[in-house]
Every structure is written in C-alpha cells, then in structure tokens.
Amino acid sequence: MIRNPILRGFNPDPSVCRVGDDVYIATSTFEWFPGVQIHHSRDLVNWRLLTRPLTRPSQLNMLGNPDSCGVWAPDLTWSDGLFWLIYTDVKRYGRTTVGGASGASLRDFHNYLVTAPAIEGPWSDPVFLNSSGFDPSIFHDQDGRRYVLNMLWDHRAGHNRFAGIVLQEYDHAARALVGERRVIFQGTSLGLTEAPHLYRRDGWCYLVTAEGGTGFGHAVTLARSRDLFGPYELHPEGPVITSRDRPDAPLQRAGHADLLEMPDGTTWAAYLCGRPLPNRGRCVLGRETALQPMVWSEDGWLRTRDGQGAPELEAEPPGLAPHSWPATPVRANFDGPDLPIDFQWLRSPWPEELFSLTERPGWLRLFGRESLGSLFRQALVARRQQAFCYSAETLMEFAPEHFQQAAGLVCYYGGTKFHYLHVTHDAELGRVLQVMSALPDQPQADAFTRPLPIPDGPIRLRVEVDYERLRFGFSSDGAEWAWLPEVFDASILSDEATAPGQPNFTGAFVGVACQDTAGTRRRADFDWFDYEERDYRRDPTRP
Hints:
Blueprint: E1 2-3, E2 15-19, E3 22-27, E4 32-33, E5 37-41, E6 48-51, E7 70-79, E8 82-92, E9 108-116, E10 127-130, E11 137-140, E12 146-153, E13 162-171, E14 176-185, E15 194-201, E16 204-211, E17 219-225, E18 233-234, E19 241-242, E20 252-261, E21 267-274, E22 288-296, E23 302-304, E24 314-315, E25 331-332, E26 343-346, E27 355-356, E28 364-367, E29 379-384, E30 389-397, E31 405-414, E32 417-426, E33 430-438, E34 446-448, E35 452-453, E36 459-466, E37 469-475, E38 482-483, E39 488-489, E40 509-516, E41 523-533
C-alpha cells in the first residue's frame, strides 16, 4: 500500500515527474545545502533519496539568506531528452502581513533553470529567468514551445501582494524569456495564489495552483481554459484537495500539488501536508509529501475518489511490480570522503570551510565557525527528523580552551528555534556541558541550563524525543548515562512556533555543530552519528 506521507519529515512543495518506469519527486530545501531533494520510486510505494542537483557556487550561493529562504518550490520536468529543473532562490522575505509583525513587506526572489541529460547529472550552470515572483514552473507545449509560469509579487500599498499567475514564453536557444508577460489567473477569494502547474488534456488547458497559504487553510485549486492564456474557469466545487474544513483529517495543511500520469492512464496528485503533534497542534516534522489517486469525471473535472477533496492516508498502487530499496542504516560512520546523503549543512557552497571527512579519516571534523543561527558560515551538519519519536547519539572529541568555543549535539529548526547540548569551557569549572535553547514563543528568547563539569576525553551525547518531549543525556563510556533533569519543549522546532511575521517553512533537524566565535577555528571531531526511529517511551532515560 501507499501510506501517506510518502516522504516523511521536511519535504515540501513536491514536483513529480515520470520518465518511463521511473518516478521522481523534487522538493524544496530552503537554506539547506545542497539544493533540491530528488526522491525516486518505481512502484509509488518505496522511495529513496537519490540526489541533490544544486551543488556548486555557480548554481546556488545562499550566504546571507534569511531562515526559511533560499530554494523554494522546485519544478522538475522531462522534455527533449533532458531533465528541466526550475527553482527560486529567495534572498529577502520581508514580513508576512499579520498583526504584530515589523518591517517592510518587500521581497527579493530570483528564478533559475538548470538542465541535465540524467537525473544524477551533470546539471548545467543556471539560466536566469526572472525575479517577478516565486514558485516558477515550465510548461512544454505540444507544438514545441515552452512557457514559464510563476506567481506575481506586488509590493504596492492597497494591492493584492499575491497578484496572480503570470505566463511568458521561454526561448531555450536564446536562454531567455521572450515576448509579453501576461497574467492568466488572478486567483480566488481564498487568496495567496501560488505554485502554478499547467497541463493539456482533451482540448483543455488545466491550471493547478495552491491557495490559502501553506498553513491550516491550505488548498489545491483547479481551473481550466480552451486557450493557454485564458480566461480560466474555476472548478465548480471549489478546492480539489484541502484539509481547511476537516479538523478530523490526520493529514492537515494539504495543498501545493502537481499531477502525475501513470502508464495505465491513472492520474495521481502529489501534494504537501503536515501532521500536527497530538498535544500541541504543531508540525515538528515540517511539511511532508503525500500522493493519492485522482479521478477524472465525465464533466472533465478532476476530483478525489471520495468526491470531497479529502487527503487520503492509504491507496493501492497502480499494479506495478514491488521495488524496494536498501534501508538507511541507523549509524552513519563517516568512513567515506562524502557525507551520507541524509545529511546537509547550511547555505554555503564551500563546505570545505565548515567540515572535512578526510583530515581525520573515519571522523567528521567540524571547524568552529560563526555562532549557531548565523546566516553565513555555520559549522552545522544535520539530518531531518522524520518521526515523532526517535533516539540520536554521537561520539565527540573536543577540547575547548575558552567560553567562545563550543561543540555538541543540536536539535535545530533555525536561528531562533533550537536546543543545543554542547561542551564548552568555564574559567572556574573547566570543561563543562550545558544546554542553550532559543525559544521563539517565550518572553526570554534564550535560556541556558546550569553548566556541569565533565572530565576531559571523548564524550557521548544523546537525545531522546517523544512527541513534544525532549531529553538530553551524556556518557563517557556508553554504559552509564547521566540525564539532564530538564524536559525540553520539542514543539518549538516547528513552523507554528514563531514571532509574528517571520517565515517558517522548514522542519526539525538533529545533528552536530561547532562554534568558535574567537575566529581561531577550534575543531571538533565526531566518530559516528546514530539516528533511530522508535515507538513512544514514557521514560526514555530508562533502559
């Protein structure tokens, strides 16, 4: 069975593409590098993380990009023997227009196109397309012409900032957009119209968009026209997929869809969703990707199988032979010259400034860089949290000389949301262990636990997460563990925990970090990293 979400943890804004028997889904990575995740399946049930195509400075440099900016909403297609990947690099978010928000609602986004003959590359240097809005996609028409769509951003006072969907022809020989930019769809009363995808079927042009914002009011809107440039008529029953009026739905925030045609003629919708914590209503796993079958009715409109637009938890695959992939091991040993594919770092296309897997073979060496939450050079390597309950552990060697040097295990969402178990140096106590928390929803934005003196030598650091509860422990030998008495709030590692007006579009990560704000690049070495999903434990500190 297909069990949703098919891509668990932070994997939003899916774009789905089939080439023969292979199906690929591209998702947003925001400030995490390398850019764009591409998953692969041959049966729609089993998926593997295959590649991240934006790997070099000419394609993506996010130094200075704010949290939850960077790579938004990639669009992956196949045409004329090439994969085409369009993406947005968001440089400034401004603010969301909500009560209590500060700053100007000005934004900067730049849209690019890269191509490759194979999904794993080599991917080309980018072609700059435009900066008029975000969520670009490309439509390969039947006559060989191509068109780029994106939402149009209007910063002017008194105007709808989500000003509709624009379409403009793309000339690949000239590597440029040509002709007039035209607004083809202005959206519905749900507002926040974005994420356009265009298709032809039975003489109609179908336009799929996301509306209502990417929170709990999210929805998939469908419109159609006999002419590419419109006018477009709306689906007579409103959104085709949404949870906005279904508080009972286990998959919330449903929206931002792309359509997939399978060889048997069935149509599927890939869309983002969120699973709130039962006790908090916050989505610590971020926005995930779901997939479900759709039905074309006799009137030429697309509907869910129940006809109600409800997200589905399970579906039978379309008669394909099962094709599984090797399971991801619990332990990442850092034995090779490259990071295991589940791990990413932040913003920089120059990872050699942040870490090395070759200076000490078999270890991940982090070079102490800027503070945790810096928008430039953070030495932080982490992987997604993909389940509500998990255990993570690492073995670290680190000898700080003063208080400006720190390294350890971090549960991280962004620069204003993290819990950081770290080793540092205290002038009176010597080598110490403590937790720093950045709290987005408390009067005091940062908090520290009491420093605990610890002996020199290797140290194991561990975190246990059970829904909204987070516990830290440490050990010198792995046999006897000491647990910090505090129970930390894991629910802050979510989109919903925020100060007003800030962008929050990613998800919780767990990993390792090292800082040296004195600028001397004090190093920390990590032998391995364990991540294991498990059932709920009432007291995870007990064996």
